[in-house]
């Protein structure tokens, strides 16, 4: 029952935001009386916290694969981006939910994300520095800031897929695929110096 509550609450928070979601709406979506939801989650804030914690737990369960991808193989960047894209494509509401929480309460989310993102950030930043030392990566790239921008851009692309579908045409899945494909190209291009002669 708790899983069903969290699933419906996550969908509603992602779609309507904190202000637009009520405990009654969550109870209606699950098919329960409001007191039954309050039994598990006494306040709307407690419910939202539990939903965010669930996303972070799912990320923590994915993290070993991400860290392995970031620390091994010649195509580390491709591997890591592939894992992150997979994580958000499995449940697009994750990206919308995180985007909503960033707008509603950025300080709290920042504090809660630090432990979850720091290991990944450190490994990818080290990858960028190695590339800079070898001359494969632009010297003016700020490794930590670059990684954070990558995270923000990926989450935003997934969160905005339905809007993009209306502009690009097609369904949200195909729009998301186009957006993420172009974003991955831009991410890679942002790291590498232009060839001599300035030809892209």
How would you characterize this protein structure?
Helix 4 (44-71) packs antiparallel against helix 5 and helix 6 crosses helix 7 (106-134). The model has no long low-confidence stretch (mean pLDDT 84). It is elongated and about 65 Å long. It has 200 residues and is mainly alpha-helical. The chain has one domain (48-191): Tetracycline Repressor, domain 2 (Orthogonal Bundle), CATH 1.10.357.10. The protein has ten helices and no strands. The protein starts with a helix and ends in a 9-residue tail after the last helix. Helices cover 80% and strands 0% of the residues.
Secondary-structure blueprint:
Layout: H1 2-16, H2 23-30, H3 34-40, H4 44-71, H5 76-90, H6 93-104, H7 106-134, H8 143-159, H9 161-168, H10 172-191
Helix pairs in contact: 1-2, 1-4, 1-6, 2-3, 4-5, 4-7, 6-7, 6-8, 7-8, 8-10, 9-10
């Amino acid at each position: 029952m708790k899983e069903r509550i969290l699933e419906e609450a996550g969908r509603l928070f992602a779609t309507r935001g904190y202000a637009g979601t009520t405990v009654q709406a969550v109870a209606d979506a699950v098919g329960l009386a409001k007191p039954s939801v309050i039994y598990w989650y006494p306040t709307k804030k407690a419910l939202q916290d539990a939903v965010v914690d669930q996303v972070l737990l799912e990320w923590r369960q994915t993290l070993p694969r991400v860290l392995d991808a970031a620390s091994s193989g010649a195509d580390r960047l491709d591997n890591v981006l592939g894992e992150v894209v997979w994580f958000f494509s499995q449940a697009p509401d994750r990206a919308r939910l995180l985007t909503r929480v960033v707008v509603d309460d950025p300080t709290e989310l920042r504090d809660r994300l630090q432990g979850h993102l720091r290991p990944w950030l450190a490994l990818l930043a080290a990858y960028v520095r190695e590339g800079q030392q070898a001359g494969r990566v632009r010297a003016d790239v700020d490794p930590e800031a670059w990684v954070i921008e990558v995270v923000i851009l990926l989450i935003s692309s997934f969160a905005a897929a339905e809007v993009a579908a209306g502009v690009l045409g097609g369904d949200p899945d195909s729009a998301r695929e186009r957006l993420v494909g172009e974003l991955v190209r831009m991410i890679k291009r942002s790291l590498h110096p232009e060839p001599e002669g300035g030809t892209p």
